Fold:
Amino acid sequence: MTDVVVLVEPAGTAGEVTRALLACRVDPQSRVLQPPDPLLGAGIVTQPGAPVWWAEQGIGDSAVVVCRHAPALLEQLGADLAATWVVWCEDAEQAAGCRAVHVLGIVAASPEEFAAELVASVLEPTGCFRPRRPRMEWGPFTRRAATSPPPSPPQPPSLPAGAGAPPAPAATAGSLADGPGTATERGAEEREPVQAASFPSVRLPPPTPVPSAPIRWPELPSSGGAVALPLPAPIAALSQNPGAPDGRGAHAARPRAVKEGGRSRERTSEPRPRPLGLGGWVRQVVARDSGLGVRLGEVGGRLEGRHSTTVGIATTKGGATKTTLAAALGWVGDMALAPRGGAVCVVEANPDNADIAIDFAVPPEAPTVRELIACLESGGAAPRPHVVEGTRIEVWPGPRQSSGHGQAQIARLHAYLQAQYSLVIADFSNCLPDTVGGAASELLHAWAPWVDVWVVPMDCSQKALIAAGESIDALTACVRGSTGAREPGFVVPLLLNDPGARRDRRHRSLVDEFRSRGIAVVEIPYVPQVGRAAMNGQRPTEIHRGLTRAWMALLEEVAAVAVETIPR
Structure:
């Protein structure tokens, strides 16, 4: 038995490698395992849940582990490892780097080619996997039709003398009747005489004939016309089951529809009972999902364990779906925390384009975050925020004037929000943190020391990749410069708005650079219908199941990174 663990990134490519390996498996006890998306690639090194997943699967230390070429992984590999590591390389230079650390590197252009080379070079000697070779079916490779030899005629038994020997068979070609000198006769002369076996005399009684009743068909009437003829008794008995009380057999045919009065009605029969009610059917459908309920419970427990987590969404590039991700994290956060009694808060921190209220249909008269800050400074009672119907999501929309807030005001605001909510999500403007760059930059700079996890979205364009890198560097420098603040974690959601980006070698190397620095990258499918969800009164989580699972994976990464940070 051999266990193969596929750590290839992204998850779609890992699935293709897994399916190709399963097609070559000949030992049913051998397993091909693909961990959750956060543990792919360098996540097997950086994520704290990797040892737990490995132990739960019961994987031995001598497993075969396959992955893409990544510097963070190569640093951990060597010749003294019990597991066999195989690295998918893009060129001979990367393969040479793998040989330097005593690891096998395979250069391949596609998942199928990589899987085939992996089976041929590593897995086939174990006897558990076998390469799939095409079967030739042309010309000299055409298979002969399978023909069975004709059955030999039955030979009569040898009976002793006086027991009534059977009559001799009729003469055939090649027998003794052909005259002297035939092949059969010459063979008989050359053979040695065989002693006949002696058996006691046995007289068989003559066979007793079994009388069969003649089949009597009913006579046709002289008037003519079609009549229904009953089956004869011997034939009708074949379709009956003696054990059935109604005589129709255990598998009686379904009653036919009968025409009556121009309408089609069914003969009187009992309705088919439903094995489950509506509730049971719904439970079955929900159970077929990919364990979303279990994942929600786990991430809700992580967030509740920290009491409160603050998430900031920022990047310098516009159109990177910051506001959409802020709303999405609010929805899935409510799904995880509401069963535990926790609440989610979404705060508008974008004075230039305060449009978070549109995604949650916040009425114009709802209290703003500026009004909340004013009440906290004056010592008055905090106003009641807008609560999204049917949820525990509370929204503080943007200010009605574009002036910023100071460090002391944001510190007091965050202390209040941290005491009230289990998850605080702040949506910022397209800018870098700065104290003299305007209201948006000052607000981002004031919030930076209090954010636990930064979500820096990007799409497949070059501008988005550069903007994400600049934002991460600026936020890290801003937090390091704050007194008593710690370095926050980063999660990068990658919007797959370009189908060909996965095949772009340069793009993959840039994305892998984020992962090699310990930054989790979560792929988000591009679903244009999400932009019309609020217009049509729909929740974003009801638009596309795959998109909801991606948002759930993003929240899982946020919770995992938040747990790694030092609590206040």
